[in-house]
Amino acid sequence: MKDLGEAKKVLGMKIERDRRSGKVSLTQKEYLQKILQRFNIDGDTKSVSTPLPPHFKLKATIFPTTVEEREYMTRMPYASTVDSLMYAMVCTRPDLLQAVSMISRYMYDLGKGH
Question: Is 0.85 topped by the overall pTM?
Fold first, then answer.
């Protein structure tokens, strides 16, 4: 058996310790940056305190109406994006709960409005 010291990462989450205040925190900054790169979201995006404003409403009637729009939406990695956000939400980002739960409702027939 070999002592490797304190753990620095677990399941892709970085472990940060503040011994003076007795706090341990987990961060997924690197994971979230990989998600942004994978889905071609550049660093020029605007940060917000709430991922989805309360007045924002999605409707099931925003489904694709044309063949071109349906083909465009089949090329979008929507399910993969939602899955990646769910992992972040469950592990370290509960603030994403409302947005992820709302967008995941429309995975069956999604349009550009979603």
Answer: no
